[in-house]
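Record 1 of the preview.
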Amino acid sequence: MTVPTADAPYGVDPLGRPYSDKSKIVAGILQIFLGTLGIGRFYVGSVGVGVAQLLTCGGLGLWALIDGILFLTSKDRTDKQGRVLRG
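->
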């Protein structure tokens, strides 16, 4: 178990990287169901990618679906500050 510190209030992963206050499960679910609007990307702070998904309807849904699955399965997804998503 990791001990929270001032610079990592949610703890750190096994590699010593701080965890985000955002959840990869929430990001993945948002991306799968609302990815055509870029909601999962807006949630983690990727505004530019979120706007691109919004303008392309999530790559006609395919980009959004793949992105959502990657959020759920990846261990390296990060938020805007570069912190690893919890989950």
